[in-house]
Every structure is written in structure tokens, then in C-alpha cells.
Amino acid sequence: MAVNLTSKAQLDLIVKGFKKVLEQEAVQNFLRRMLEKAPALVLAWLATHLKDLKDRPAQTWARPNYHFGQKKLRRRVNKLSASISTVYGDGDGPGRADLVAAVGQIETALSVAQRLPLAKRVRANFRIDSALDEMERALFESTLPNLAGGHYE
């Protein structure tokens, strides 16, 4: 059956359609070639990076004995100790010995919590976190002058 092309617009539409089909074919051919090369590319990448992968330590989250949250809590304890030293200096101010003893108790609690099973360790870390919150809040409020309202929340 013969197609009667009566207008240039129809011819342009047909040409655009053929171009789209050819572009799609070119893209598909390119993708097909890349997928055929993929195994070789992966092997080449592994050959260049295998030593780095072997030397890299295991991901901490993948270790079954990983104690998540411990680093953060230990950093907070260290910062609290530094804050106590800033507020009281190296001298023996009133209440300094009690704060230092409390920080020591929290460090002991962290050491004990580190050896607990996961579910109990998580609950213990939350309790330690709450105790640190209270101590940080109390230390902060003790450094402020008595102002109206005077509460830090």
C-alpha cells in the first residue's frame, strides 16, 4: 500500500520518528556493550582495589561485639570532666570532689554496660545518658548567676 505524503509536516513527523527509533537503538546498543564489559570492569576494579579492601578494618557495625553508643558517652564524660576542671580549676572547690566521684561512677557504669547483652546494654546506655544530662545541666546552672526564671531546659 502506498503512503501518500501530502504535506511537509507529515514528512517531518515521520523523519522525527525514525530518528527517535535510531537513537533508542543506539542507546540500547551502547548499554548492551557496557553490560557485556561489566564483568571485566568489575574484575579490573577489584584487581586495583583488593589490597585496599584487605587492609581496611572491618566495619564496626558488622562486628557482633560492637558496643554502639559507648564512644559518644565516653566523649561526653571526657567533656564533662574538662568542664568541671574549667569551672573549679585544679583546686578543691565546694562540691568538686562529689562531681569528680560522680563522673568516676559513670565511667564505671560505662565499663559494666559494655559487657552486657545488647538489650540490657541499650537500656543501660539510656540511663547513663540521662545521668549525664542531669550532671551537665546541674554544672551549667551552677555557673549561671541567679536570674529570674533561672532554669535551663
How would you sum up this structure, described in words?
The structure is a single chain. By secondary structure, the chain is mainly alpha-helical. It is 73% helix and 0% strand. The chain contains 4 helices and no strands. The protein has helices at residues 8-55, 70-88, 96-114, 118-143. The chain is elongated. The protein starts with 7 loop residues before the first helix and ends in a 10-residue tail after the last helix. The model has no long low-confidence stretch (mean pLDDT 78).
Short description:
The chain is mostly helical.
Could you state the oligomeric state of the chains shown? Answer: single chain
Helix and strand run: HHHH
What structural class do the secondary elements suggest? mainly alpha
What gap, in angstroms, lies between the N and C termini?
85 Å
Please tally the β strands and state the result: 0
Could you tell me the mean pLDDT? 78
Largest sheet: none
Shape: elongated
Helix content: over 70%
Count of runs of 4 or more consecutive helical residues: 4
- The amount of beta strand, in percent, is under 5%
Rg = 34 Å
Q: Which ranges are low-confidence, i.e. pLDDT below 50, for 5 or more consecutive residues?
A: none
Supply the key terms.
mainly alpha; elongated; 153 residues; single chain
Write the layout of secondary structure elements.
Blueprint: H1 8-55, H2 70-88, H3 96-114, H4 118-143
Helix pairs in contact: 2-3, 2-4, 3-4
